[in-house]
Each structure stands twice: as structure tokens, then as C-alpha cells.
Fold these 3 entries.
Entry 1:
Amino acid sequence: MADKMKAADRVVLLVDDEPDILELLEMTLTGMGLKVDKARGVREAVRLLAEKRYDLCLTDMRMPDGDGLEVVRYITAKRMDLPVAVITAHGNMENAITVLKAGAFDYLAKPLSLEQLRSLVKSALSLPHAEPADDTRQLLLGRAAAMQKVRDLIEKVARSQAPVHISGESGSGKELAARLIVQSGARRDQPMVSVNCGAIPENLMESEFFGYKKGSFTGADKDKEGLFQAANGGTLFLDEVADLPLTMQVKLLRAIQEKRVRKVGATAEEPVDVRIISATHIDLAERVKQGQFRQDLFYRLNVIPIQMPALRELREDIPQIAQQKLDQLSAGSPVRFTEGALAALKNYNFPGNVRELENIIERALALCSGDVIEEQDLHLLPAERAQQDAVEMGEKYPLPEYLDRVEKEALLEALHKTGFNRTAAAKLLGLTFRTIRYRMERLGIKSPDGTEDAD
């Protein structure tokens, strides 16, 4: 009874110039226990938005006196705490992406699916208050402008269903950013399924993502749900999305656009309600230029881009971040850094970013005497110190060439340690086999006998 009363207090503004669409939407929403106001164009919608408070706005894209994008921009400009969804023509993904970039919560394609409509409305009405929880903000430390920009973007995109692509170096916190987006959004109580795209064998990708029917191939002795079905109602996090083979990219694009998947061996598709967040440490735009990543899929994933800063870009924040990691790893014991240790950390280049910082602190905790970590307990590599000196002298410019040098040195070191076995070197570096193969080709690295590999 309390839930019904609560739903009855929610008011949705419908904006459309077609009476039959308005009637269908009104019947569906009143059937969900919601109140409805109707506007037959942009001007009437703006007037009602100025006069009343709404919990959701659902607008058509094309109307005689304007389009739904104007409604989205009005709501965004007025900083209304109001999710707005747009109805677009079937197959017009350009319009859908445009409204998502403008700040729309989500979109619906014609012909309308009432199941998708109900799911969208439930998600929109589940949004938390606009002010984020303090504990969520504290998970991404740092006062530097680059980190503040990331926090601001996370707050914004958490209140949307738009696909988000997170880029950044290995260890820079891409998955943490993805989890913060989920925790601050409407799907926070729904499953978040994470998948490393480089860890799935190519011949198993379709069945892993979409599931399969019993008897569809040898060994399929029962029906199996895929990753999309497991994430239904929640979020699918595609880590290292650049590692997807081109054949799978086509199928993934269709699943994202149609919001439907077909199990291997099935004759019919089934609807799925999944928000996509992707991440990679590789420049996807460059992969598109090289023909190794589909431009249409990149366009679809990269609706809202977030660039995670490298730890060396947050140099003034390193002491604060290091102390917080130390407090976490010491399990409440009163351990502290000396000033010399903090200075050494602040001057270190951290090619492995926050992940490397955690490993260094964990090692120092095991090696230090008592409750004080000295500089020598950190065991920072002299080679990295020299590299940092070079950076401070200006040898980091131009940046692409500098990063290529650093990457090539790290790859060669791992390859020499493993006798130029790419599989072992990839494991040592925390990369997939496909990733290390691509990087070796890009940087012109070959084994001592002149071949590509010694596996």
C-alpha cells in the first residue's frame, strides 16, 4: 500500500504531438500507478516545466514546433534534478547518441516496446538524490584538477543510462570509476557484471556474451545464460574492450543498438536491459584508424568519455593517496611514512599507477621495522628514478614518443626475463596475449632471431 501511494505521488510529463502515442504512453504509465501531464509540443512542455515539478519527462524527438533535443537542453540548462528520455525513430542511432550526449537519461526507439518503456521508467524513478554520498567521493582521492574533472563527470553520467568509455593507463583506476558510476546511479541495486574481453577465447565469445541453447554445439548439454542475461537490469562492464575481435564487435554492436540478444542455437531474440560501460588502456580512436576496431562500435561506446589521469599527473596528491592506501593495508595499525619516504614516492614516476603504489606499500609493510616506513623500505627501482629525472628535465616531450619509449623498455624487460615467450611476458605484465602481440608489432619488437615470437 505504501509503495502504491508513493508511485501515485510521482508525476511524468509526456511530450508528443501524436494523440495515439500520447494515449499509449498515458495508459502504460497510469497502469504503473503514476500521474501524467501531457504537452503537445516543445513550447507547451517548457511552460509546464517552468510551472511544476516532475519526476520524469518523456519526449518525442520530432514535433511541429521543435524537437526533443530542445527539451533536453532546457532541462540541463536549468539544472533540474529531472531525468528526461527521448523517443527516436527506429535505427536512427545518431539522434540517440546526440540526446545522450546532451544529458538525456536514456532513449526509446520506435516502434515502442512497452516492456522497455516500463523498465526505463522504473530505472529513472530509482535515481538517488543528485548529491553524491561522501564515501563515494572519497574513493577517488586527489585535489588535482584532472581528478576533480573525473569526479564531476562521474556524478553527471551516473544519472544517465548513456554508454560510458573509460580510458587510461593500466592501474589508473578505470574499474573503480566504473563501480562508482554504478553505485551513484539508478542501477546501484542491480548486478554489475565485469568481463575482461581479452580473457575469453575467440571461439567462445558469442556463447559467453549471449548464452546458448542445449544441443547447439558439442558439449552444450543444457541451456546457459550469457553475460548480457546475467547483467539484465544492471550494468555490463567491458574491460579491455579493444581486445574484442572484429567478428564479435559486429554482434556486440547489434546487441547494444537493438537491446536484444539471441542465444547460440536459438531461433528468436530476447530483450535485455543493460547499461554498457567499457574501458581500455589502448587508444581506441587510433585502433579505428588502423582498421582494428569498428568505427560504428567506437561511436556507440564512446558516448561519454572519461579519461583517468596517470598517478604522475597527481604528483601533489601522492602523499595523501599513499597514506590512505597505507591505512587500508595496515588494517588499523598506526603505521606512518617518514618525510623521506613520502618525498621519494612523490618523485617516483609510477608506470603502474595506483596499482603499483599499492604493491610498493604492501611490500614496504612487510619489510619495515616497527611502525615507520623509511625510504629504503620502498625499494624503488634506480632505473625508474633515472627515468623520473629525465622527465623533470623535459625529456617527456613530445609525449607520444616518450610514452612509446617507456612502453618499449617495459616490454623488452619482460620479454628478456621470459626468453621472449610472449605468453609468459604478457602474464608478467598483466596483459593479454593479443595485447602484447599488438604492442610488439606497433613498436617493432622482434625476437633475437628476427622472428615475431619465441613461444
Entry 2:
Amino acid sequence: MTANQPIQVANYTIGAGHRPFVIAEMSGNHNQSLERALEIVDAVADAGAHALKLQTYTPDTITFNGSSEEFYIRDAKSLWADKNLYKLYSDAYTPWEWHKPIFDHAKKRGMIAFSSPFDTTAVDFLESLDVPLYKIASFENTDHILLKKIAQTGKPVIMSTGVASVADLDESVKVLRANCCKDLVLLKCTSTYPATPETTNLRTIPHMRELFDVAVGLSDHTMGIGAAVAAVALGAVVLEKHVTLRRADGGVDSAFSLEPDELKSLVIETERAFLAMGQVSYTLTAKEQKSLQFKRSLYVVQDVKAGEAFTPENVRSIRPANGLHTRYYDDIINKTATKDISAGTALDWSLILND
């Protein structure tokens, strides 16, 4: 596929010329409650999201239960500062037995349901649930073992590009394509949590589209919806945002997740941005044609006697547009009237004496 070829997933078409495809990422914001997970599904469906995405791993498939320093996050600015990786993923993972009821409920609510697998066993599991596409997370985008496994399913792939150089991405795209991945979307992603607008660099979106000749979107970790709206203006066809019911409830990713009302605003405003982009056009719309009458033209604004000269005092450019065009203003000043003219009369050539 190329950047301009649409990707069909279930009832949705992803690509240029189509409304942005909005993915609600639940991550671990279910806070280990299936009931809450299903509430999130309902909330994002009501908000208008097109897809619901999970993450499929266990603590053991994503890390090792080690106690040495390398298994701790020692960044004081991180949301997860001083967390042991194994403990963090134990808190954040979505039990695999929850996937089917969550997926079923999402599909019942009219959304596509899929996931990011973090190892090959997760791909096998998701294949058993017949997911329609796959997402590759930023920290896995150079795991060629995983990339090959996902690509060989033959299903569309969405891959985040965080924490990867251009060389990394070029190699990963080649691995995917060499293993039967035909439908690929790359997501511009800044893998900091939350990300700042200053580090988001949305101008990368059209460059990435041209560089790899694929559709491009945004995996957005900034607060609010401004970056997503701007991304659509730059050609993003997919938007991914973390979601939660209420940030105040806490959760591993809640601090940079959207609440349902914010997600609804994102869906509405990014669709407006898409529609507003339109095409290069200088043609007046039908409504604009009707508004032409409200443009300015030349009117007599003081009573003028036959033979009297037109002056800046008795001729002005005003609305509506029933008189002579303003381009003729300099031509008619100091010309004389052919007859008496009442104030409020639209000026036309029959009222002007040709010398």
C-alpha cells in the first residue's frame, strides 16, 4: 500500500480523504476492575471513539522479576519514579481472560476492538480472538521477533514511532513489509508521559508520510486536544489517546488520559478540522453567492441635482452591492449627474453624464 491508499478495517475506512480514526487506549486505567473496564468501554463509545484498544501482556512476558537497579525506574520526573518494573506491570496489565468480554462489549457498542501485543504469545492469544488489526507500541517497534510475528498475520498494522531513530524505523518498516504486512500506519509519537507540546514536533507527520510512503497519524500523550486537532491539519488519519473515567480516580496512566467529555470534544473538533481542510478552492459556495449582495458598491448618499458634480461628500462606498463597483470611484468623482438623484440611490452609468 501507499500513503494514499485507504485501509479497510471492519466498517471503517482509514486513510486520506476519510475522517480521522480515533482510538481510545484503555491501558491500565481499569485499575484492575473488569466492571470499571466495561464502564470505560461505554464511556468512550458514547464519546464517539471508533476503536477501543487494550495492551496484551503479563508481567512475565514484558519484564523479569528482578530486584537489581536495572529493574527500577530511577527518573525523579517520571510518573512511575522508583517503581519496580515487575510491580508496575502487575498493577497495569489487563488480565487475558478479560479481553473477550471487553472486546465483545466494545463491538456491541459499535467500536473496533484490538490490542497491542508485547510478545509472540500475546499475538497467538489475540489471533484466537480474531482481532481485525494490531498496534505495535513504541518500546516494541524495534523488536524484530514481534514485528515478524504480527506482520505474518496479514492484518493491518499501526505502529508508534517513539524512541526510534529514522534508521530504526526504516529497518522496522522493511521487516514488516518483508513479512506480508501490506496495510501499515505509522504514528508520530513522543514517548514521554505526559508529553509537552514543545516536544511533539507535529511537522514530522507529512515528512514521515513522504519518507515511508504510508499513512501517518498521532499517538498523543500531551494534555488536552490541541495537538490532535493540529495533527489532522497536517494529514494525520489516525489519532490515539489514553482514556479514563476520571483522572481523580488514579491509575497508571490517568495523569495524561482524557476523560469522556474531553474525548468527545476531540472526536468533534478533529472531525471539524478534517472537514475544514477541504481542498484548494477559490470558488464561492452557494451561500457565499447569496452574500455577494452584501458587499460594497457606490451609492449617492446626499441629494444631488441635475448637473451637480459627484463628490466624496455625496458619493460613498457602502453596503449593499447594487451600485457601481468601487473600482470606478475615481472615474466618477467630479463627473456630473444627468438628473436629480435622491440620497440612498444606487449609482449606475445612466446617472452619470459622459463628458
Entry 3:
Amino acid sequence: MADVHFETVYFSGRVQGVGFRYSTLQVAKEFEVAGAVRNLPDGRVVVEAEGRAPEVAAFIAAIEERMHDCVRKVERSACVRASEFSGFTIR
């Protein structure tokens, strides 16, 4: 498998119970990314996305734009690794 750009992004704010995961899934359909989104017990939402770096960056920016009223803080970390996802899912 080829190496891909991978990002883990934590969204804080009023991000649970507002359709954040579903909206993220819909945004993912507009980009060539794979990964998953899930709620965390501490109230944050984590998005794991992989693909070409510009595509992943545009995907994350689109989530931030669509959900800007709910997001207070975004924490991102990135690396290059072997592809682990097929498609984009809600977990």
C-alpha cells in the first residue's frame, strides 16, 4: 500500500448532539478522502482522515466552515503512513 497523508483532528465546543458526525460524513463525499469520525467520552469529536495532503486539508477546512457555529477549538496532528481506511464512516 502506498503512503498517504493522515490527520487526526479533534473538534471541541458544542460538537455532540448537533449532527456533527453526519455533516462530516456528507462533507467527506465531496472530497477524495478516507477515514472515520466519532464522538469521544470527553465531549469532543475526532476526525481521522487520509488521502493526498491538499485534499485532506480542504476536507478539514470544509468541516470547519460548515460547523463553525459549533466549533470552539480545533487540534490537528499529521503524519505520513500506510493507508488504513477504505471509505469514510461514522463510528
